Protein backbone atom coordinates (compact mmCIF):
# COMPACT_ATOMS: atom_id res chain seq x y z
CA UNK A 1 0.00 0.00 0.00
CA UNK A 2 1.23 3.53 -0.67
CA UNK A 3 1.52 5.87 2.30
CA UNK A 4 -1.47 7.80 0.96
CA UNK A 5 -3.56 4.62 0.93
CA UNK A 6 -2.34 3.73 4.43
CA UNK A 7 -3.25 7.22 5.70
CA UNK A 8 -6.69 6.93 4.09
CA UNK A 9 -7.28 3.56 5.74
CA UNK A 10 -6.02 4.94 9.07
CA UNK A 11 -8.36 7.94 8.93
CA UNK A 12 -11.26 5.66 7.96
CA UNK A 13 -10.58 3.67 11.15
CA UNK A 14 -10.61 6.89 13.18
CA UNK A 15 -13.89 7.90 11.52
CA UNK A 16 -15.40 4.53 12.48
CA UNK A 17 -14.41 5.20 16.08
CA UNK A 18 -11.89 2.35 16.17
CA UNK A 19 -9.07 2.42 18.70
CA UNK A 20 -5.54 2.57 17.34
CA UNK A 21 -3.32 0.11 19.21
CA UNK A 22 0.49 0.10 19.65
CA UNK A 23 1.18 -2.43 16.87
CA UNK A 24 -1.08 -0.73 14.32
CA UNK A 25 0.14 1.39 11.41
CA UNK A 26 -0.06 5.09 12.28
CA UNK A 27 1.27 8.30 10.70
CA UNK A 28 4.59 9.30 12.26
CA UNK A 29 3.05 12.68 13.13
CA UNK A 30 0.25 10.93 15.04
CA UNK A 31 2.87 9.05 17.07
CA UNK A 32 4.88 12.25 17.68
CA UNK A 33 1.81 14.21 18.81
CA UNK A 34 0.79 11.43 21.18
CA UNK A 35 4.26 11.13 22.70
CA UNK A 36 4.35 14.92 23.17
CA UNK A 37 0.91 15.13 24.75
CA UNK A 38 0.97 11.96 26.87
CA UNK A 39 4.49 12.52 28.22
CA UNK A 40 3.65 16.11 29.17
CA UNK A 41 0.46 14.86 30.78
CA UNK A 42 2.57 12.39 32.79
CA UNK A 43 5.02 15.14 33.78
CA UNK A 44 2.05 17.22 34.95
CA UNK A 45 0.85 14.44 37.22
CA UNK A 46 4.28 14.01 38.82
CA UNK A 47 5.04 17.73 39.22
CA UNK A 48 1.43 18.21 40.38
CA UNK A 49 2.27 16.16 43.51
CA UNK A 50 4.58 18.92 44.77
CA UNK A 51 2.19 21.81 45.55
CA UNK A 52 -0.12 19.54 47.57
CA UNK A 53 2.67 17.43 49.02
CA UNK A 54 3.90 20.54 50.81
CA UNK A 55 0.80 20.40 53.05
CA UNK A 56 0.82 16.70 54.02
CA UNK A 57 2.78 17.42 57.21
CA UNK A 58 0.54 20.40 57.99
CA UNK A 59 -2.91 18.84 57.50
CA UNK A 60 -5.22 19.98 60.35
CA UNK A 61 -6.50 16.49 61.23
CA UNK A 62 -5.42 12.87 60.78
CA UNK A 63 -8.38 12.31 58.42
CA UNK A 64 -7.35 15.24 56.21
CA UNK A 65 -3.77 13.95 56.23
CA UNK A 66 -4.88 10.47 55.15
CA UNK A 67 -7.08 11.85 52.35
CA UNK A 68 -4.31 14.14 51.08
CA UNK A 69 -1.74 11.32 51.26
CA UNK A 70 -4.05 9.09 49.21
CA UNK A 71 -4.60 11.82 46.62
CA UNK A 72 -0.91 12.66 46.17
CA UNK A 73 -0.13 8.94 45.93
CA UNK A 74 -2.83 8.61 43.22
CA UNK A 75 -1.12 11.32 41.19
CA UNK A 76 2.13 9.34 41.21
CA UNK A 77 0.17 6.36 39.88
CA UNK A 78 -1.40 8.50 37.16
CA UNK A 79 2.07 9.53 36.09
CA UNK A 80 3.11 5.87 35.86
CA UNK A 81 0.06 4.91 33.75
CA UNK A 82 0.80 7.77 31.38
CA UNK A 83 4.54 7.15 31.08
CA UNK A 84 3.66 3.52 30.25
CA UNK A 85 1.15 4.69 27.63
CA UNK A 86 3.85 6.85 26.04
CA UNK A 87 6.30 3.92 26.15
CA UNK A 88 3.89 1.88 23.98
CA UNK A 89 4.68 4.45 21.24
CA UNK A 90 8.42 3.88 21.47
CA UNK A 91 9.27 6.69 23.91
CA UNK A 92 11.72 5.69 26.64
CA UNK A 93 11.29 6.61 30.30
CA UNK A 94 14.87 7.88 30.38
CA UNK A 95 14.29 10.23 27.44
CA UNK A 96 10.99 11.55 28.80
CA UNK A 97 12.47 12.24 32.23
CA UNK A 98 15.52 13.86 30.65
CA UNK A 99 13.23 16.10 28.58
CA UNK A 100 11.42 17.17 31.76
CA UNK A 101 14.50 17.73 33.90
CA UNK A 102 16.25 19.68 31.14
CA UNK A 103 13.14 21.90 30.67
CA UNK A 104 12.73 20.72 27.07
CA UNK A 105 9.34 19.23 27.94
CA UNK A 106 6.38 21.10 29.40
CA UNK A 107 4.02 20.28 32.21
CA UNK A 108 0.77 22.00 33.17
CA UNK A 109 1.46 25.63 34.08
CA UNK A 110 -1.07 25.49 36.93
CA UNK A 111 1.47 23.62 39.08
CA UNK A 112 3.87 26.54 39.04
CA UNK A 113 1.85 28.48 41.60
CA UNK A 114 2.45 28.28 45.38
CA UNK A 115 0.04 26.70 47.88
CA UNK A 116 -0.12 29.48 50.47
CA UNK A 117 -2.81 28.13 52.81
CA UNK A 118 -4.64 24.92 53.70
CA UNK A 119 -7.62 26.21 51.72
CA UNK A 120 -5.46 25.91 48.58
CA UNK A 121 -5.61 22.13 48.98
CA UNK A 122 -9.41 22.15 48.84
CA UNK A 123 -9.49 24.62 45.95
CA UNK A 124 -6.93 22.59 43.96
CA UNK A 125 -8.99 19.44 44.55
CA UNK A 126 -12.25 21.06 43.44
CA UNK A 127 -11.06 23.42 40.69
CA UNK A 128 -7.82 21.93 39.30
CA UNK A 129 -8.84 18.29 39.54
CA UNK A 130 -12.36 19.28 38.47
CA UNK A 131 -10.89 20.88 35.34
CA UNK A 132 -8.71 17.82 34.80
CA UNK A 133 -11.78 15.56 34.93
CA UNK A 134 -13.51 17.58 32.20
CA UNK A 135 -10.41 17.36 30.00
CA UNK A 136 -9.66 13.73 30.82
CA UNK A 137 -13.26 12.55 30.36
CA UNK A 138 -12.88 13.84 26.80
CA UNK A 139 -9.52 12.06 26.46
CA UNK A 140 -11.11 8.79 27.60
CA UNK A 141 -12.64 8.80 24.10
CA UNK A 142 -9.25 9.38 22.47
CA UNK A 143 -8.47 7.33 19.35
CA UNK A 144 -5.28 5.90 20.90
CA UNK A 145 -6.24 2.80 22.90
CA UNK A 146 -3.66 2.86 25.73
CA UNK A 147 -4.29 6.61 26.36
CA UNK A 148 -8.06 6.30 26.44
CA UNK A 149 -7.90 3.27 28.75
CA UNK A 150 -5.48 5.03 31.11
CA UNK A 151 -8.00 7.89 31.28
CA UNK A 152 -10.80 5.58 32.44
CA UNK A 153 -8.83 4.59 35.57
CA UNK A 154 -7.51 8.12 36.13
CA UNK A 155 -10.94 9.76 35.84
CA UNK A 156 -12.37 7.40 38.46
CA UNK A 157 -9.68 8.47 40.93
CA UNK A 158 -9.89 12.17 39.96
CA UNK A 159 -13.57 12.11 40.93
CA UNK A 160 -12.52 11.29 44.51
CA UNK A 161 -9.92 14.09 44.32
CA UNK A 162 -12.58 16.59 43.23
CA UNK A 163 -15.10 15.48 45.86
CA UNK A 164 -12.64 15.72 48.75
CA UNK A 165 -11.67 19.21 47.59
CA UNK A 166 -15.28 20.32 47.19
CA UNK A 167 -16.08 19.07 50.70
CA UNK A 168 -13.18 21.09 52.13
CA UNK A 169 -14.28 24.28 50.33
CA UNK A 170 -17.90 23.85 51.50
CA UNK A 171 -16.79 23.37 55.11
CA UNK A 172 -14.43 26.36 55.02
CA UNK A 173 -17.04 28.55 53.31
CA UNK A 174 -19.46 27.74 56.15
CA UNK A 175 -16.81 28.17 58.83
CA UNK A 176 -15.50 31.20 60.71
CA UNK A 177 -15.06 34.54 58.89
CA UNK A 178 -11.32 33.82 58.85
CA UNK A 179 -11.91 30.44 57.16
CA UNK A 180 -14.27 32.02 54.60
CA UNK A 181 -11.70 34.68 53.84
CA UNK A 182 -8.98 32.03 53.50
CA UNK A 183 -10.95 29.96 50.98
CA UNK A 184 -12.04 33.04 48.98
CA UNK A 185 -8.41 34.16 48.84
CA UNK A 186 -7.40 30.73 47.53
CA UNK A 187 -10.09 30.85 44.81
CA UNK A 188 -8.89 34.32 43.79
CA UNK A 189 -5.37 32.91 43.26
CA UNK A 190 -6.28 29.64 41.54
CA UNK A 191 -9.21 30.66 39.29
CA UNK A 192 -7.30 32.02 36.30
CA UNK A 193 -4.39 29.48 36.38
CA UNK A 194 -7.07 26.76 36.36
CA UNK A 195 -8.75 28.24 33.26
CA UNK A 196 -5.32 28.26 31.58
CA UNK A 197 -5.10 24.45 32.08
CA UNK A 198 -7.38 24.03 29.06
CA UNK A 199 -4.74 25.58 26.80
CA UNK A 200 -4.71 28.52 24.40
CA UNK A 201 -7.85 29.70 22.60
CA UNK A 202 -8.75 27.37 19.73
CA UNK A 203 -7.71 30.04 17.21
CA UNK A 204 -4.23 30.15 18.81
CA UNK A 205 -3.80 26.41 19.43
CA UNK A 206 -1.09 25.06 17.12
CA UNK A 207 -1.75 21.39 17.87
CA UNK A 208 -5.52 21.18 18.22
CA UNK A 209 -6.42 20.90 14.52
CA UNK A 210 -4.24 17.78 14.00
CA UNK A 211 -5.26 16.29 17.35
CA UNK A 212 -8.94 16.75 16.49
CA UNK A 213 -8.47 15.43 12.91
CA UNK A 214 -7.07 12.18 14.26
CA UNK A 215 -9.45 11.89 17.20
CA UNK A 216 -6.82 12.35 19.92
CA UNK A 217 -8.93 15.23 21.22
CA UNK A 218 -12.66 15.22 20.46
CA UNK A 219 -13.55 18.63 21.95
CA UNK A 220 -11.70 21.93 21.71
CA UNK A 221 -9.80 23.84 24.40
CA UNK A 222 -12.40 26.64 24.53
CA UNK A 223 -15.35 24.23 24.56
CA UNK A 224 -13.97 22.38 27.60
CA UNK A 225 -13.12 25.65 29.35
CA UNK A 226 -16.73 26.78 28.90
CA UNK A 227 -18.04 23.49 30.34
CA UNK A 228 -15.85 24.05 33.40
CA UNK A 229 -16.96 27.67 33.93
CA UNK A 230 -20.65 26.76 33.54
CA UNK A 231 -20.20 23.95 36.09
CA UNK A 232 -18.28 25.90 38.73
CA UNK A 233 -19.88 29.37 38.82
CA UNK A 234 -23.35 28.32 40.06
CA UNK A 235 -21.80 26.05 42.72
CA UNK A 236 -19.39 28.73 43.96
CA UNK A 237 -22.16 31.36 44.00
CA UNK A 238 -24.39 28.96 45.99
CA UNK A 239 -21.70 29.02 48.69
CA UNK A 240 -21.54 32.81 48.62
CA UNK A 241 -18.11 32.63 46.99
CA UNK A 242 -17.01 34.62 43.92
CA UNK A 243 -14.34 34.45 41.21
CA UNK A 244 -11.88 37.32 40.50
CA UNK A 245 -13.49 38.31 37.19
CA UNK A 246 -15.36 41.65 37.14
CA UNK A 247 -16.45 40.97 33.55
CA UNK A 248 -18.13 37.63 34.37
CA UNK A 249 -21.71 37.66 33.11
CA UNK A 250 -24.49 35.18 32.34
CA UNK A 251 -25.62 35.03 28.72
CA UNK A 252 -29.34 34.23 28.76
CA UNK A 253 -29.34 33.28 25.08
CA UNK A 254 -26.67 30.57 25.25
CA UNK A 255 -26.96 29.73 28.95
CA UNK A 256 -23.20 30.25 29.26
CA UNK A 257 -21.29 32.12 31.93
CA UNK A 258 -18.98 34.39 29.89
CA UNK A 259 -15.56 35.24 31.39
CA UNK A 260 -13.37 38.27 30.92
CA UNK A 261 -10.08 38.06 28.98
CA UNK A 262 -7.43 35.54 30.10
CA UNK A 263 -3.97 37.05 30.68
CA UNK A 264 -2.10 35.11 27.99
CA UNK A 265 1.09 37.05 28.73
CA UNK A 266 1.04 35.51 32.20
CA UNK A 267 0.22 32.10 30.67
CA UNK A 268 3.23 32.14 28.30
CA UNK A 269 5.47 33.67 30.97
CA UNK A 270 4.71 30.68 33.23
CA UNK A 271 4.79 28.09 30.40
CA UNK A 272 8.21 29.41 29.38
CA UNK A 273 9.60 28.86 32.87
CA UNK A 274 9.14 32.25 34.55
CA UNK A 275 6.25 31.48 36.89
CA UNK A 276 6.33 31.83 40.69
CA UNK A 277 7.49 28.25 41.35
CA UNK A 278 8.96 26.89 38.09
CA UNK A 279 12.55 26.80 39.36
CA UNK A 280 11.52 25.26 42.70
CA UNK A 281 9.42 22.55 41.01
CA UNK A 282 12.18 21.52 38.60
CA UNK A 283 14.80 21.59 41.35
CA UNK A 284 12.63 19.27 43.45
CA UNK A 285 12.27 16.86 40.52
CA UNK A 286 15.99 16.97 39.74
CA UNK A 287 16.81 16.27 43.40
CA UNK A 288 14.32 13.37 43.51
CA UNK A 289 15.87 11.94 40.34
CA UNK A 290 19.35 12.20 41.85
CA UNK A 291 18.19 10.63 45.12
CA UNK A 292 16.79 7.68 43.13
CA UNK A 293 20.02 7.09 41.18
CA UNK A 294 21.15 4.27 43.49
CA UNK A 295 17.87 2.39 42.92
CA UNK A 296 18.27 2.58 39.14
CA UNK A 297 21.91 1.47 39.38
CA UNK A 298 21.05 -1.46 41.67
CA UNK A 299 18.28 -2.61 39.31
CA UNK A 300 20.62 -2.36 36.32
CA UNK A 301 23.32 -4.36 38.14
CA UNK A 302 20.82 -7.03 39.14
CA UNK A 303 19.49 -7.29 35.56
CA UNK A 304 23.07 -7.63 34.28
CA UNK A 305 23.80 -10.38 36.86
CA UNK A 306 20.60 -12.16 35.80
CA UNK A 307 21.74 -11.97 32.21
CA UNK A 308 25.29 -13.23 32.77
CA UNK A 309 24.80 -15.71 35.68
CA UNK A 310 21.21 -16.83 35.14
CA UNK A 311 18.31 -16.42 37.57
CA UNK A 312 19.40 -15.56 41.12
CA UNK A 313 18.00 -16.63 44.49
CA UNK A 314 15.86 -19.67 45.43
CA UNK A 315 14.31 -21.22 42.36
CA UNK A 316 10.64 -22.24 42.29
CA UNK A 317 10.30 -26.06 42.58
CA UNK A 318 9.76 -27.59 39.14
CA UNK A 319 6.62 -29.63 38.55
CA UNK A 320 2.98 -28.67 39.05
CA UNK A 321 2.44 -25.51 41.01
CA UNK A 322 0.86 -26.23 44.40
CA UNK A 323 -2.06 -24.09 43.30
CA UNK A 324 -2.45 -25.87 39.96
CA UNK A 325 -6.05 -26.89 39.30
CA UNK A 326 -6.47 -30.56 40.19
N1 LIG B 1 0.48 24.34 30.63
C1 LIG B 1 1.65 24.16 29.97
N2 LIG B 1 1.73 24.12 28.61
C2 LIG B 1 0.60 24.25 27.91
C3 LIG B 1 -0.66 24.41 28.53
C4 LIG B 1 -0.68 24.46 29.95
N3 LIG B 1 -1.82 24.64 30.62
N4 LIG B 1 -1.59 24.50 27.55
C5 LIG B 1 -0.94 24.40 26.38
N5 LIG B 1 0.37 24.26 26.60
C6 LIG B 1 1.41 24.15 25.59
C7 LIG B 1 1.21 22.90 24.75
O1 LIG B 1 1.92 21.82 25.34
C8 LIG B 1 1.84 23.35 23.44
O2 LIG B 1 3.25 23.31 23.55
P1 LIG B 1 4.08 22.12 22.83
O3 LIG B 1 3.61 22.05 21.41
O4 LIG B 1 5.52 22.52 22.97
O5 LIG B 1 3.76 20.87 23.61
C9 LIG B 1 1.49 24.83 23.36
O6 LIG B 1 1.23 25.24 24.70
C10 LIG B 1 0.31 25.12 22.48
O7 LIG B 1 -0.83 24.54 23.07
P2 LIG B 1 -1.86 23.72 22.18
O8 LIG B 1 -3.25 24.18 22.53
O9 LIG B 1 -1.49 23.72 20.75
O10 LIG B 1 -1.57 22.29 22.76
P3 LIG B 1 -2.64 21.15 22.97
O11 LIG B 1 -3.60 21.10 21.85
O12 LIG B 1 -1.83 19.98 23.29
O13 LIG B 1 -3.51 21.62 24.27
C11 LIG B 1 -3.60 20.75 26.51
C12 LIG B 1 -2.91 21.73 25.53
C13 LIG B 1 -5.04 21.20 26.69
C14 LIG B 1 -2.84 20.77 27.81
C15 LIG B 1 -3.57 19.37 25.87
O14 LIG B 1 -2.21 19.06 25.61
C16 LIG B 1 -4.12 18.27 26.74
O15 LIG B 1 -5.32 18.10 26.82
N6 LIG B 1 -3.21 17.48 27.35
C17 LIG B 1 -3.60 16.30 28.10
C18 LIG B 1 -4.12 16.65 29.49
C19 LIG B 1 -3.03 17.30 30.33
O16 LIG B 1 -1.89 17.30 30.02
N7 LIG B 1 -3.46 17.87 31.45
C20 LIG B 1 -2.50 18.55 32.31
C21 LIG B 1 -3.01 18.61 33.67
S1 LIG B 1 -2.67 17.07 34.50
C22 LIG B 1 -3.64 17.19 35.78
O17 LIG B 1 -4.55 17.92 35.73
C23 LIG B 1 -3.34 16.38 36.99
C24 LIG B 1 -4.50 16.24 37.88
O18 LIG B 1 -4.22 15.26 38.82
C25 LIG B 1 -4.81 17.55 38.59
Tally of helical segments:
13
CATH superfamily of the largest domain: Ferritin, core subunit, four-helix bundle
Overall morphology: globular
Number of domains: 2
* Overall CATH class of the largest domain: Mainly Alpha
Instruction: Give me the side-by-side strand order of the main sheet.
Output: 1-2
List of distinct ligands in this structure: 3-hydroxybutanoyl-coenzyme A
The radius of gyration is 22 Å
Key attributes of the depicted protein:
single chain, 326 residues, mainly alpha, Ferritin, 2 domains, two-stranded antiparallel ribbon, 2 strands, binds 3-hydroxybutanoyl-coenzyme A
Characterize the structure shown:
- The chain has 326 residues and is an all-alpha fold.
- The chain folds into 2 domains: 3-218, Ferritin, core subunit, four-helix bundle (Ferritin), CATH 1.20.1260; 283-313.
- The protein contains 13 helices and 2 strands, in the order ααααααααααββααα.
- Strands 1-2 form a two-stranded antiparallel ribbon.
- Helix 2 (28-47) runs antiparallel to helix 4 and helix 6 (118-139) crosses helix 10.
- The structure holds 3-hydroxybutanoyl-coenzyme A.
- 3-hydroxybutanoyl-coenzyme A binds at residues 36-37, 40-41, 44-45, 48, 75, 78, 106, 108-109, 128-129, 132, 135, 196-200, 205-208, 211, 221, 271.
List the SSEs and their pairings:
Layout: H1 3-15, H2 28-47, H3 49-53, H4 62-87, H5 93-101, H6 118-139, H7 145-173, H8 177-196, H9 208-213, H10 221-238, E1 249-251, E2 256-258, H11 264-274, H12 278-291, H13 293-309
The structure holds 3-hydroxybutanoyl-coenzyme A.
